[in-house]
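[Meeting: bench + compute handoff]

Bench side (C.D.) handed over the final construct sequence. Compute side (W.E.) agreed to return the predicted structure before the next meeting so the bench team could plan truncations. Sequence as handed over:
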Amino acid sequence: MTIVRPQSLHLGRLASASESGALELPASGGTLRVLHLADERPDEPRACWYVCLAGRVIVDLPYANFAHLRSQEACRVEAGIPRTLTPIGAATVLVIEVQP
């Protein structure tokens, strides 16, 4: 039996080194997006995790629902649900898209 050493990702370095854009996750079929937010921004209604790496962000959802994320906090939003990301000041958010 061959055991393959798992690859590790340093999320803080990844976020600070990348501009906003998508990155493919190695051997997973998933993608990461790093968002450097200064203003309110609608996001795609795909199933994903939002991980706040720096600052604070509000994930605004329909019907007066929301998640207030501080640094190192995360939440998952299901596909088909509209959402808007609103930073409080400036924020860096890692978006991990979930494959169906």
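W.E. noted at the follow-up: Residues 1 and 52 are 38 Å apart (CA to CA). C.D. will use this when planning the next construct.
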